[in-house]
């Protein structure tokens, strides 16, 4: 036995002797093959480990950001979410299966809306789902396609995004003999292109954004610098619509600052920012003590015309952008006057606020001269989100007051939906003593403002009630608005009669805000992004730092309109 053991041992050692292989070339080749295969396997494993560790690091960053946001919202965790013992991570990052399921349902809805548009209205502005054809509501600028770019990207729909990107690069042409709305073109097309650029880093979007904005610029060539609201894209002739008696509209003139400032930051050309900010300079000269401007402004004199004061149609987004330019500007001294104007206007908003009996629904009145009208547009339901976003800029007592008002108004807006037979909101509501609320104009055109505010309030309070409310609204859209060939609005929220239009903002805003409502707050974080009024996120550029512009982002896997 000893001899056999010895013989076996010496036999094994011979395989370590190079001479053994030099006499046997086939075995040498085999050994070399095994060595190469093992080497490749080792480095492939190392690559996978590296990718795994990189993903873990990214998730740790997301967890830390979420931890910070929870602290800001008053929720304090007992430990640092990223701890030294990596095995305990699973206890700290709990996957919410309800939110996951809801988010996937919203993503599927986006795919249904998008695929219907692709099938029946590709390249056109909007889809008419019932008649299964497209319509050019905005001059043939591919409004739905451009409006959808960032939603596709954020939802991780890569193939759909790339197909849309190619259309933008090859087919999007702005040389059209068409009188375009400066406002709608800015928020949908300029905003959509800039957001797609900020998310993907693809310069084709920036080049197209610059092209269309250059065509809009002559609208600002007025005596006061207050822009005309319509312009011919081919010839540069600007004017106001006849029904305004020559006046410019407040929201239409004061809702380009985010996009134009962003474009100047990304191109290095200050002319866009200068044009847009000059409007605010002019409005400061006539700014009233209550911060409430009428909806009509004379573009020649720069003075306000006698007209309605409202946080609904034609007023809304002017006030929104006062706050958001302050956010976009890193809340620095340079943009302090925006915040000051906004706070003044919020005092005005408080003066317009009433509550109903018997249910104590808070609502925002409209003002005509010295009298208040007990009417509120669904469009004004952006206000709860705006108030929640701006609350943290106040001292503690005022901040609580503003946040409480945001919560109360959100409750009212949610009940705009819950009090109709279809559970979808009408276009506006009237309030009467002892009767709470009643639908005025009874159509629903898939508007986003309420779910927008629910998304802000959920992120800023951590209260999951807002997610549940949003889910209720989504289910009502699924039940009443979804058809085989897309989504439609309702001509009447009481009867459920359908219209024939899938508004582009349904894909740009309504579905995006619903998706984000069920996503972690680190997905398009408020610390890094600011949303334009069409829900297009624009990256906040750190002070004296443009390096973040155009850096691709890893995807997380309101406007005028009428029923047709």
From TrEMBL:
Pfam families: Glyco_hydro_47. It catalyses: N(4)-(alpha-D-Man-(1->2)-alpha-D-Man-(1->2)-alpha-D-Man-(1->3)-[alpha-D-Man-(1->3)-[alpha-D-Man-(1->2)-alpha-D-Man-(1->6)]-alpha-D-Man-(1->6)]-beta-D-Man-(1->4)-beta-D-GlcNAc-(1->4)-beta-D-GlcNAc)-L-asparaginyl-[protein] (N-glucan mannose isomer 8A1,2,3B1,3) + 3 H2O = N(4)-(alpha-D-Man-(1->3)-[alpha-D-Man-(1->3)-[alpha-D-Man-(1->6)]-alpha-D-Man-(1->6)]-beta-D-Man-(1->4)-beta-D-GlcNAc-(1->4)-beta-D-GlcNAc)-L-asparaginyl-[protein] (N-glucan mannose isomer 5A1,2) + 3 beta-D-mannose; N(4)-(alpha-D-Man-(1->2)-alpha-D-Man-(1->2)-alpha-D-Man-(1->3)-[alpha-D-Man-(1->2)-alpha-D-Man-(1->3)-[alpha-D-Man-(1->2)-alpha-D-Man-(1->6)]-alpha-D-Man-(1->6)]-beta-D-Man-(1->4)-beta-D-GlcNAc-(1->4)-beta-D-GlcNAc)-L-asparaginyl-[protein] (N-glucan mannose isomer 9A1,2,3B1,2,3) + 4 H2O = N(4)-(alpha-D-Man-(1->3)-[alpha-D-Man-(1->3)-[alpha-D-Man-(1->6)]-alpha-D-Man-(1->6)]-beta-D-Man-(1->4)-beta-D-GlcNAc-(1->4)-beta-D-GlcNAc)-L-asparaginyl-[protein] (N-glucan mannose isomer 5A1,2) + 4 beta-D-mannose. Keywords: Calcium, Coiled coil, Disulfide bond, Glycoprotein, Glycosidase, Golgi apparatus, Hydrolase, Magnesium, Manganese, Membrane, Metal-binding, Signal-anchor, Transmembrane, Transmembrane helix. Belongs to the glycosyl hydrolase 47 family. The active site is at 184 (proton donor), 316, 427 (proton donor), 449. InterPro entries: 6hp_glycosidase-like_sf, Glyco_hydro_47, Glycosyl_Hydrolase_47, Seven-hairpin_glycosidases. The keyword Acetylation does not apply. Disulfide bonds join 381-413. This is alpha-1,2-Mannosidase. Ca(2+) binds at residue 533. Its cofactor is Mg(2+); Mn(2+); Ca(2+). It is a single-pass type II membrane protein; Single-pass membrane protein. GO terms for biological process: carbohydrate metabolic process; ERAD pathway; N-glycan processing. Class I alpha-mannosidase essential for early N-glycan processing. Progressively trims alpha-1,2-linked mannose residues. Produces Man(5)GlcNAc(2) from Man(8)GlcNAc(2), but only Man(6)GlcNAc(2) from Man(9)GlcNAc(2). Has difficulty acting on the terminal mannose of the b-branch. Involved in root development and cell wall biosynthesis. It is found in: Endomembrane system; Golgi apparatus membrane. Pathway: Protein modification; protein glycosylation. It comes from Sorghum bicolor.
């Amino acid at each position: 036995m000893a001899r056999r053991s010895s013989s076996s041992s010496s036999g094994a050692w011979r395989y370590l002797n190079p001479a053994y292989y030099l006499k046997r070339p086939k075995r040498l080749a085999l050994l070399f093959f095994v060595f190469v295969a093992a080497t490749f396997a080792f480095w492939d494993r190392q690559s996978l480990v590296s990718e795994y560790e990189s993903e873990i690091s990214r998730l740790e960053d997301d967890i830390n950001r979420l931890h910070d946001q929870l602290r800001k919202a008053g929720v304090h965790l007992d430990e640092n979410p990223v701890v030294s013992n990596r095995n305990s991570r699973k206890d700290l990052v709990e996957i919410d299966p309800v939110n996951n399921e809801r988010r996937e349902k919203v993503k599927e809805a986006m795919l249904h809306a998008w695929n219907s548009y692709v099938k029946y209205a590709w390249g056109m502005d909007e889809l008419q789902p019932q008649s299964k054809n497209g319509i050019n509501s905005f001059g043939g600028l591919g409004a739905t396609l451009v409006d959808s770019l960032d939603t596709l990207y954020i939802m991780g729909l890569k193939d759909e995004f790339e197909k849309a990107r190619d259309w933008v690069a090859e087919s999007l042409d702005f040389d059209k003999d068409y009188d375009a709305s400066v406002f709608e073109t800015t928020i949908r097309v300029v905003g959509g292109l800039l957001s797609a650029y900020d998310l993907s880093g693809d310069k084709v979007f920036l080049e197209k954004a610059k092209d269309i904005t250059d065509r809009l610029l002559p609208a600002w060539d007025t005596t006061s610098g207050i822009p005309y609201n319509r312009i011919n894209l081919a010839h540069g002739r600007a004017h106001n619509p006849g029904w305004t008696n020559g006046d410019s509209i407040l929201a239409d003139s004061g809702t380009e600052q985010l996009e134009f400032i962003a474009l100047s930051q990304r191109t290095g050309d200050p002319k866009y920012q200068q044009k847009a900010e000059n409007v605010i300079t002019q409005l400061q000269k006539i700014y009233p003590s209550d911060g409430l401007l009428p909806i009509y402004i004379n573009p020649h004199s720069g003075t306000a015309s006698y007209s309605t004061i409202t946080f609904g149609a034609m007023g809304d987004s002017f006030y929104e952008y006062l706050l958001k330019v302050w956010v976009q500007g890193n809340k620095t001294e340079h943009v302090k006057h925006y915040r000051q104007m906004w706070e003044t206007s919020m005092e005005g908003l408080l003066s317009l606020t009433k509550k109903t009996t018997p249910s104590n629904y808070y609502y925002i009145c409209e003002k005509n001269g010295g009298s208040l009208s007990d009417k509120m547009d669904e469009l004004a339901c952006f206000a709860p989100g705006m108030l929640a976003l701006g609350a943290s800029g106040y001292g503690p007592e005022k901040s609580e007051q503003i946040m409480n008002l945001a919560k109360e108004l959100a409750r009212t807006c949610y009940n705009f939906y819950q009090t109709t037979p279809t559970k979808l909101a009408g276009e506006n509501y009237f309030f009467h003593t002892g009767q709470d609320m009643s639908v005025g104009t009874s159509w629903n055109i898939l508007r986003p403002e309420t779910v927008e505010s629910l998304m802000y309030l959920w992120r800023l309070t951590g209260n999951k009630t807002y997610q549940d409310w949003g889910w209720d609204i989504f289910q009502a859209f699924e039940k009443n608005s979804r058809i085989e060939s897309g989504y439609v609005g309702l001509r009447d929220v009481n009867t459920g009669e359908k219209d024939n239009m899938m508004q582009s903002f349904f894909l740009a805003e309504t579905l995006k805000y619903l998706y984000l409502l069920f996503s972690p707050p680190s997905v398009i974080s408020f610390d890094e992004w600011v949303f334009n009024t069409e829900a297009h996120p624009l990256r906040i550029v750190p002070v004296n730092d443009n390096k973040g512009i155009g850096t691709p982002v890893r995807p997380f896997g309101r406007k005028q309109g009428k029923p047709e």
